[in-house]
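Dear H.,

Thanks for agreeing to be a second pair of eyes. The structure we're designing against is below in token form, covering all 240 positions.
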């Protein structure tokens, strides 16, 4: 139903989607940021569950070809396993935390969340020389964690305006078409460059994401938008 509305009445879809998120995000997503300003002239592509040497380097190549930047929400386990790739991504793009191993257990209580960060944040600091300021909850589920708990650790949570649904896709053309229908200034788009436990419902790989990315980046350019990091989107969304 939503795909049909997005195709035939994109303005209506954006209104309905915003109304849904305005209710859902405070209740289920920890008050996360889910879009930038519609006057920003930009969109933020975000990639979860990496880094993964099978897919992340190819995503970097596609982004470089389009002179685009993105935000990657990395799992600490994958960062520790692939430190050189982690640093390669950080050289041009923004890295946030997707916590340790994609488990929902840390969101069951503030104490569990603090314990999770105690083992995750030092990995960021050791590999990148700084701690992250942006977080995406595994599966987007905040559990019992809200803005107050995030502020204690210097973090802001980011959800997404819409998902590419690349986790269940076999065909890159389907992923690209879904994103193109929903693209608008200020959008935060969910994609993946790795496999978090329990995060795939389809083929179990990210080939569709890689196949879709050139068409997605071309659509962003055709609409006169820039593909930027979340930090850049936030800066562009400030009142002037």
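And this is the sequence the design step returned. I haven't edited it by hand at all.
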């Amino acid at each position: 139903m939503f795909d049909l509305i997005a195709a035939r009445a994109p303005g209506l879809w954006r209104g309905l989607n915003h109304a849904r998120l305005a209710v859902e995000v405070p209740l289920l997503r920890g008050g996360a940021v889910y879009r930038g300003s519609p006057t920003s002239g930009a969109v933020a592509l975000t990639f979860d569950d990496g880094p993964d040497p099978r897919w992340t380097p190819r995503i970097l190549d596609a982004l470089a070809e389009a002179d685009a930047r993105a935000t990657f929400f990395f799992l600490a386990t994958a960062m520790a396993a692939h430190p050189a790739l982690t640093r390669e991504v950080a050289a041009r793009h923004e890295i946030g935390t997707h916590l340790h191993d994609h488990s929902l257990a840390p969101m069951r209580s503030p104490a569990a969340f603090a314990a999770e960060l105690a083992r995750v944040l030092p990995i960021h600091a050791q590999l990148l020389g700084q701690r992250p300021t942006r977080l995406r909850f595994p599966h987007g589920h905040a559990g019992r964690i809200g803005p107050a708990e995030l502020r204690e650790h210097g973090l802001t949570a980011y959800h997404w305006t819409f998902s590419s649904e690349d986790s269940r896709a076999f065909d890159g053309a389907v992923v690209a078409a879904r994103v193109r229908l929903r693209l608008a200034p200020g959008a935060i788009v969910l994609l993946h460059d790795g496999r978090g436990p329990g995060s795939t419902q389809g083929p179990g790989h990210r080939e569709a994401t890689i196949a879709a990315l050139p068409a997605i980046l071309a659509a962003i350019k055709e609409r006169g938008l820039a593909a930027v990091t979340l930090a850049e989107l936030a800066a562009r969304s400030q009142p002037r």
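Two observations from my side: The chain has one domain: 2-236. The domain at 2-236 is CATH 3.20.20.370 (TIM Barrel).

Warmly,
E.
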